[in-house]
Design brief:
Chain lengths: 299, 495, 306
């Protein structure tokens, strides 16, 4: 081995090697119970396998089949729509609510926080049932519309090709906005009072204060909230399955339906694994972009 | 998971993926560092991939193994079961069987006092997700429920996990009791790739089929008689519509109810054997038959005329039942298994029938309930056979009826209420005429989704009849091709 | 009383008295605005809360109907019946399921927080080789649709003889949760002013001591929120529980008990199903409400320390 260059020495000196000791416990869990099954999944995705009997080598067939399936491709589009409803809407609503709660003294803050958190606590299956009733032809949404004379707009929201996707998406918004709010509130509590006061001294109104003080301070929370909600949006399964089963037609099918069905119904575990891997990569890319964007603005 | 030859090369290829990660690291242009990065990440990759590289799954197919517990020639006597000594009989069943099991287990334990029955029930969706793993595990239950079709029963047979029970059927005389055609839903080739013929792998005391519910009071108000024939039924639909009523209540957000409605129409037009042949995957059959075309057109026509109301694709099948008992819709075309929920609300006003075909016979989308199977690995074959024998007999049938369900055997059985009597009578006729046409979604593993969403498209006119039939047939064809490929490979491997 | 002392409320700190002297002018000028603002804000919050509440109330009301009533949608029962709850409790074996769920969720939360705090601290403050790539690999855990990996996980657990044990539920969930946990903690630590850390270093505290003595107390609110989220996820985890504990009714968790009703093929009873859903949600909800106090005082503590 040639003599170590000074640059390398300098580099090595700057490193804090014991850092790995801090990572070790987490790494053990992560490698054994996340990465290992994940690599097995990637491996399985190269096979034609029913989950039980001996599989047979398929190479990239599962992936090419996946690309050529029109239903799967449209399901990806649905997922992108769900990002709007699961991530963007709740983050926006959560931010607005947080902005309100930080600025003034809220009476019964604890009560509001508890109430707004309810959607996160309930089982998604039951949420789906409850919302099916809300969207029902004879349900409250249509009742309200008819009461204000909008009979023409009333419809079976989940049964209509045009409205099923956004209707399911709104359920996602409903589930997520409380979560976003709780995340943002935790972050907002860390904002030093001085910042608000300084802004007010400058004569900033609520809107400017929101954009100059709250928003920049919450960048970290926003990126975590977006990653969480985007992931949920792309993985979304329970809600779709229990409200529309992917219908009408294929108008609300999402990739997770393929994973679920492949793994447990049609027993095409290899192909389900391929969809899973592809979905992971896609989510990873989307989330990386989000984090990159939010980080760059900071600098 | 022992690995045969191939993987080594692929294994190496697998490591390269994580190694690529170093490129995303902040770039100090330093070769030493990069080398180390690569090495570290590769080591990590190696650590996690070590186990990953083997062909997934285990070699199945114990088809030529000996019959668990040996062949039997006559019904198992309590004395023979006694020879097992004090023992457990472990059962996993659908949670829908709870009522039946509550009645039946004590009867069984009384007759076979040395056997202690241990039951575990799971809701259907959970049950069908886990049953294959459970059966292939180290400690499978002795008796288990499956599900007709490739997804569960087929896979269990392919893996050699079930004991064929032709000897049992013969010894107990089931082959005389049951219409021979109908048992095809429980038969498989020993490699599990051909559905509908071969060994008998399961049996069921429950009879499930789709029929027409109606409300006596409502019919009276509209001046409609309960329809006896299909012509009566279609006439009644017209009349209901003219009177401003929604003729048929449909809740199709689960996607299967419209498929069953189509099956009900199709049972009138297609011969039973032709329907079954297609579901069983007989080569050369097609979904695009003249009768099916007519059926699909009828269904589309009904939807267009508003017979099915509006918004049905957003209503669950459960909610449809609730709406129907609440007075919406004149008829409900649904499974007989909805009777307890409907009977509770409508009491004696609840009517149920299968409209007769023009030739005077009856046929309907239907099958036996979830079949019971004996594990190929059980050491308590006699106790398990005794269970099946007793279940298929009068005591089992009565227990089924007492639990509010419809037994296959109705002779000497007292049904709990009027609605159940009506259903039992219709069910008996259906069996006598050998008229169960099965369900379309058995035809392939993906058929439930394919036909479910396609039928929604048909109802709303997004798919024309021809395109609809073609779409369903395409799924069928693809699945057949897969099955044949798998069967070939298996026979190749056996040589 | 609330409005008049508006923004200064969170700062019962020694330094607080200084500021009000400086702030009067803006405060007075915003007072009328702030009253209007307060009304609007409260109205919006009440609306948002009602929206959050409606589906839950709907479920609760359905559950409170007499047994066998087929209700769908919003319907107030003529009299309260708890029979559905009793049925759900008994048929779903909820008494043992709730205990199992609690056990699993607590174990997952505690283990995850332990490892995440350590890892998050390292990622936030230390320079070490492969930091970026490791962070990237960690992100996979955050976005993984584990429905796809659950079957390999099944075979792995089977091989290791962990099927049907609590470990089969706890270990993978710790693995999946620690990605979120580490990101969360790193985010928090990165937001802590470096001056605090430098002060500790000048005092001669080791890095680990800095974590324990300075950072952890500061992190209480962040950890509480994280714990709440992790607890929720662990409490509601269904698929792993279904697949990895296929055959042990004693280790069955609450979502499985609920699924016993929701996945029923042909005997579903909306009343009992709703009751079961409430039974699963209620303990978490009550816990959350009780935590609120601790939660908010934790936040205040955080604010003070800054």
């Amino acid at each position: 081995m040639t003599s170590v260059s000074p640059a390398v020495k300098e580099w090595a000196r700057r490193q804090y090697w014991p850092a790995y000791l801090y990572l070790l416990p987490g790494a053990a869990f992560y490698i054994l119970f996340v990465l290992r099954p994940l690599f097995t999944t990637a491996w399985i995705s190269l096979f034609d396998w029913d989950g039980l009997t001996l599989g047979s080598w398929a190479g990239l067939d599962n992936y090419t089949a996946l690309l050529s399936d029109p239903v799967l491709r449209s399901s990806l589009l649905h997922s992108l729509v769900f990002i709007v409803f699961y991530a963007l809407v709740p983050v926006a609503v959560g931010l607005i609510l947080t902005g309100l709660m930080v600025r003034i003294r809220i009476r019964g803050l604890a009560v509001f926080r508890s109430l707004l958190f309810i959607p996160q606590v309930l089982s998604t299956v039951v949420i789906a049932v409850s919302w099916r009733w809300i969207y029902d032809t004879d349900g409250p949404v249509n009742g309200l519309l008819r009461a204000v004379g909008l009979d023409g707009v009333a419809r079976s929201w989940l049964g209509d090709y045009g409205t099923a996707l956004p209707s399911v998406g709104l359920i996602g918004s409903w589930i997520m906005y409380g979560l976003c709010m709780v995340l943002f509130l935790t972050g907002a509590m860390r904002i030093p009072r001085e910042l608000f006061e300084a802004a007010r001294l400058d004569g900033a109104g609520p809107v400017r204060e929101f954009f100059t003080v709250i928003l920049p301070a919450l960048r970290g929370e926003i990126s975590i909230a977006l990653v969480l909600t985007v992931t949920q949006a792309l993985r979304n399964f329970d809600i779709v399955w229990n409200t529309t089963t992917g219908g009408p037609g294929n108008s609300t099918t999402v990739p997770s339906v393929f994973i679920y069905q492949g793994a447990f119904v049609t027993r095409q575990v290899g192909s389900a694994a391929a969809v899973g891997i592809a979905l992971t990569v896609l989510t990873l890319v989307v989330c990386a972009v989000i984090m990159r964007v939010l980080r760059e603005r900071k600098g | 998971m022992k690995r045969p030859d191939r993987g080594a090369g692929n294994c190496a290829r697998n490591h390269e993926a994580p190694a690529a990660c170093h490129e995303t690291g902040r770039g100090t242009p330093n070769p030493a560092r990069n080398k180390r990065t690569t090495a570290a990440v590769a080591a990590l990759g190696l650590a996690v991939t070590l186990a990953a590289c083997s062909v997934p799954g285990a070699g199945g197919g114990t088809s030529d193994e000996q019959l668990a517990g040996g062949r039997i020639t006559k019904p198992v006597s309590p004395d023979k079961v006694k020879k097992l000594g004090k023992t457990d009989l472990r059962i996993i069943a659908d949670s829908g069987e709870q009522g039946f099991l509550k009645k039946f287990v004590p009867l069984y334990e009384k007759k076979y006092p040395n056997v202690d029955v241990k039951v575990e029930t799971k809701a259907f969706a959970d049950f069908s997700k886990t049953i294959v793993n459970t059966m292939s595990g180290d400690n499978p239950p002795d008796l288990v429920q499956g599900n007709q079709g490739y997804g569960v029963d087929g896979l269990l047979v392919q893996s050699g996990l079930l004991r064929p029970i032709d000897d049992v059927a013969h010894a107990y005389g089931w082959d005389l009791d049951l219409p021979s055609g109908a048992t095809s839903q429980l038969r498989w080739s020993s490699d599990g790739r051909i559905f509908g013929s071969g060994n008998l792998y399961g049996i069921s005391q429950s009879n499930e089929y789709v029929g027409v519910f109606s409300n006596k009071k409502k019919l009276k108000k509209l001046g409609i008689e309960e329809p006896k024939t299909w012509a009566d039924f279609t006439e009644a639909l017209k009349k209901a519509e003219k009177n401003g009523e929604q003729p048929i209540m449909l809740g199709n957000s689960d996607q299967y109810p419209a498929e069953q409605l189509l099956g009900t129409i199709q049972a009138q037009k297609q011969s039973v054997s032709a329907s079954r042949a297609w579901v069983n995957g007989v080569p050369g059959t097609t979904f695009a038959t003249e009768a099916n075309r007519e059926s699909a057109e009828t269904l589309r026509d009904w939807a267009k005329k508003g017979y099915l109301g509006s918004g049905y694709n957003g209503v669950s099948s459960d909610d449809a039942v609730t709406k129907f008992t609440g007075g919406k819709g004149v008829f409900l075309v649904a499974g007989a298994w909805n009777a307890p929920a409907i009977g509770k609300q409508l009491k004696d006003d609840a009517l149920f029938t299968i409209p007769e075909k023009p030739d005077g016979t009856v046929a309907a989308a239907g099958s036996f309930g979830l079949p019971w199977h004996i594990s190929a690995k059980t050491e308590k074959t006699d106790a398990a056979i005794a269970w099946l024998g007793m279940m298929q007999g009068e005591e089992g049938a009565q227990a089924m009826a007492d639990a509010g369900r419809l037994p296959v055997r109705t002779k000497g059985v007292t049904m709990p209420d009027k609605l159940a009597e009506r259903q039992a009578a219709a069910g008996k006729r259906l069996l006598d005429d050998d008229g169960q046409t099965y369900y379309f979604d058995w035809a392939s593993n993906s058929m439930m989704t394919t036909i479910g969403s396609a039928t929604q498209d048909l109802l709303t006119g997004r798919l024309g009849t021809d395109a609809y039939l073609g779409k369903v047939q395409k799924d069928w064809k693809g699945f057949r091709a897969d099955q044949e490929k798998a069967a070939e490979k298996k026979s190749g491997a056996d040589k | 009383m609330a409005q008049t002392q508006s923004p200064a409320r969170v700062r019962p700190t020694p330094s607080a008295p200084v500021r009000p002297e400086r702030t009067p002018p803006p405060r007075r000028s915003t007072m009328d605005g702030s009253r209007r603002e307060s009304v609007v804000s409260h109205a919006l919050l009440i609306f948002a809360s009602l929206v959050a509440l409606y589906p839950f109330v709907q479920i609760l009301l359905v559950a409170l109907h007499e047994p066998g009533a087929r209700v769908s949608g919003f319907s107030v029962p003529s009299s309260l019946h708890f029979d559905n709850f009793v049925t759900a409790w008994n048929k779903g074996l909820f008494s043992s399921a709730l205990v199992s769920s609690l056990l699993v969720a607590v174990a997952v939360v505690v283990l995850t927080i332990l490892v995440s705090v350590l890892a998050g601290y390292a990622f936030a403050f230390f320079t070490f080789p492969l930091k970026g790539p490791l962070m990237g690999i960690l992100m996979i855990g955050l976005v993984l649709p584990y429905e796809a990996t659950v079957i390999p996980l099944y075979y792995q657990m089977k091989e290791w003889g962990l099927l049907n044990t609590y470990w089969a539920l706890i270990l993978p969930q710790v693995g999946l949760s620690l990605a979120l946990g580490t990101f969360w903690m790193r985010n928090f630590f990165a937001g802590v002013p470096t001056s605090l850390r430098e002060a500790a270093e000048i005092d001669g505290a080791s890095r680990f001591q800095t974590l324990r003595k300075i950072m952890l107390p500061l992190a209480v609110p962040a950890i509480t929120t994280l714990a709440t989220l992790l607890f929720l996820y662990a409490w509601n985890e269904f698929l792993l529980a279904l697949v990895l504990v296929p055959n042990n009714p004693d280790a069955q968790t609450a979502p499985l008990a609920l699924s016993f009703f929701t996945s029923d093929r042909r005997n579903s009873d909306p009343g009992v199903t709703s009751a079961a859903a409430v039974l699963v949600a209620l303990p978490v909800l009550i816990g959350y409400v009780l935590l609120q106090r601790k939660f908010i005082s934790g936040m205040l503590a955080g604010a003070v320390k800054e």
